[in-house]
Amino acid sequence: MFDIDDSALDKEKCYTTIGELPDYLDPKQPPTRKSPFSTVSRHCFVHSTELILPEEIYQAAWDSIANKISICQYAKVFMSLSDILDGEFFNKYIKIGTQICYSNILMISEGQSGVDNVYSLRDDKSSYERAGLVGKSVRSGGKKHVASRYVVEINLRLPSMLHGKKGFERIVWAFKNVLNESLTWLFSDLSPSSDLSGQDAPIKRHSPQIFSCTSTKSPFQNVLTPPLTPSTFQAESEQAISELSDTCVEIQEWLALAFLGTPRLNADDSIDPYLSRYSVPNKENCTSSNLVKLTWKGLLPSHWIAQLLIATL
């Protein structure tokens, strides 16, 4: 078998950031070009976020941290694409609004990526050809049985995107005559003064179901915690860099197990090595402590994740 590596295919990566943060971070204008904030900003949204804190820090500081975090709300609505281009919804949410983060709203439709029509437009060949919109084909990963897919990217905030303009009317026609099925959408208004339940909110006419993302607390008792000291992260020679890489991998593995709440991290764990050979890194220098895991689930935009990170720091 030949080892053929296709550089065009995306590969999963795990990023590790080592460095010092400034003494003060403005929560209203967080840095977006420096790690770890640049890594956060690359994801428009996530569906789940977890935070682990030592129990003593949680008890002493969590109320203060929670007061610095806004309540993340999102709505579940049933809309067609033509509804997005209609009236007050289009004018308030699309054409105007403050440019916070990357946009002032976040929407994601129902559907399985690579199979269904998921918008921003990733359509099957038939829908793409009938819609008459300009797009490009998406790689199928070399699987012959997978139908061709096409991605259509439309910037609705361009000055030319107005009713009556020829290019815009083509989009309106495609949304009314081809891509006209009603879909379930998750919708989030990213503006600081957003109120999805307000009577004057344009989304109100679509009878939205409002959700608030609240944290779920999970305590973990008697957990072996490896040391995380600055001296661990000093890499000057080639050997030190190799050791640093191994240390980062071990810590990432420990964090993954901690988020899962596995008993393999318990100080009194005794499992047959035939079933599990995992050992906490640097076990002789580990300390036993109680941890608290906080979990948020829902449509969580990247700017809210950055807000949580800054408040925790």
From TrEMBL:
One record GO biological process: endonucleolytic cleavage in ITS1 to separate SSU-rRNA from 5.8S rRNA and LSU-rRNA from tricistronic rRNA transcript (SSU-rRNA, 5.8S rRNA, LSU-rRNA)
GO molecular function: ribonuclease MRP activity; ribonuclease P activity
Cellular component, GO annotation: multimeric ribonuclease P complex; ribonuclease MRP complex
PANTHER family: RIBONUCLEASE P PROTEIN SUBUNIT P40
Designated name of the protein: Uncharacterized protein
